[in-house]
Design goal:
By secondary structure, the chain is an alpha/beta fold. Helix content is 31%, strand content 21%. The chain contains 6 helices and 8 strands; from the N terminus they run βββαβααβαββαβα. It has an 8-stranded mixed beta sheet with strand order 1-2-4-3-5-6-7-8, with helices on both faces. α3 packs across α4. The protein is globular and about 45 Å long. It starts with 8 loop residues before the first strand and ends in a 16-residue tail after the last helix.
């Protein structure tokens, strides 16, 4: 396969001998770590938000592997049962480790993808993964505040980073903050002022969606560097455009 180190290249992620899903590997020259990145329930790995995250992390020296869950690969709308989603998460992590064996691995995703990754990790550690990154963790159904969907996080023994909009309808701050506090030193919360579940901010906030995402990606890259045992140079920061 032809590898364009600055652009995403298509790969296949084998789930078992009979099934596989699509993936997009984005590995910039000199990458310091790789984030295995799962999509949300309603949009696949090529959604503009997912693409912007991958591009922005590449600018910051972090590789990504995005991948499809099986239902999205087949054009379905109903998310996979957790057991199947967990198998896909594990397959994507194993594929990334094979493709980029020298890089420290992290995993996570947007909304549903982040929760499926954390559930998989809670059930049995993802081989080689040093930490989990959540972009809009879906803690409860809209307008039904609860923290029960985060109960499994107490079984996650590796570091976790929650990047969350303060107006996220799926994660009331009054539920999320105490949950993160109970998780102790292994969990960090970056609350984004004015942002919703999609990291959209209203015009009255004085910021744009792209600026908000840039700040979030700076936080993610710095957190990954700390937990990978490496320090960013500060020269890889950049602006994410066009999402």
């Amino acid at each position: 396969m032809n590898e364009a180190r600055n652009d995403a290249r298509s790969i296949r992620v084998d789930i078992d001998d009979e099934s596989s899903v699509s993936g997009l590997l984005q590995s910039p020259p000199g990458a310091r770590a790789c984030l295995v990145l799962a999509h949300g329930a309603g949009a696949g790995m090529a959604h503009p938000f997912m693409s912007a995250v991958a591009r922005g992390l590449a600018v910051r020296g972090i590789a990504t592997l995005r991948y499809q869950f099986s239902y999205m690969e087949q054009g379905g709308r109903r998310p996979d049962p957790p057991a199947l989603a967990h198998r896909v998460v594990r397959a994507a992590v194993a594929c990334t480790a094979e493709l980029l064996p020298a890089l420290p691995l992290f995993a996570g995703g947007k909304s549903f993808g982040g929760r499926m990754t954390s559930q998989a990790q809670a059930a049995a550690p993802l081989a080689g993964v040093r930490g989990l990154v959540f972009l809009g963790f879906p803690l409860h159904a809209a307008r039904r505040p609860s923290d029960t969907r985060g109960a499994h996080l107490s079984d996650v023994a590796i570091p976790m980073l929650f990047v969350q909009g303060e107006r996220d309808a799926l994660a009331d701050p009054e539920c999320l903050r105490p949950l993160v506090h109970r998780l102790g030193e292994r969990a960090a919360l970056e609350m984004i002022e004015h942002a919703d579940h999609s990291f959209h901010v209203p015009k009255r906030s004085g910021s744009t969606d792209a600026e908000v995402l840039d700040d979030a990606l700076d936080t993610i890259a710095d957190w990954i560097d700390r937990h990978a045992g490496q320090s960013g140079t500060g020269t890889n920061r950049g602006t994410v455009l066009g999402w």
